[in-house]
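Problem: given the chain below (129 residues), write out its structure.
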Amino acid sequence: MMQKKEIILSAFYITFSGDCKKALSLYQTCFGGDLHFDVFDKNIAGIEDLPVISGFLVSDKITIYGSDLVHNEGRRVGNFIAVYVHCKDNKERFNYLKKLSNNNFYKNHSEQKLIEITDAFEVRWIFGI
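Solution.
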């Protein structure tokens, strides 16, 4: 009997500081896949919902891990990193851009090789074809 070979893919981890469940749920509407959340059993001051200790989205296109737990130095948004997603064509790319930008993205950039946007959770994305 032949064993199924496990494929290990790269993934990334994002700290959301209270928005992890909302963010990963949005990303699921874009990329599909399965979501999983481990949450605290008690509320923490400043966070509306039960805080996510660890959450992840695994789809055929992307794997994203996240948490509401912020490092001691706090969450800092910077311009030094972005999530790159390779798309098979402009149609696929436009669908992702439309969902991540809350339908505020227009098709007039289809000739560009790379398109960058920042979503509502301050995560920078680059979509290429």
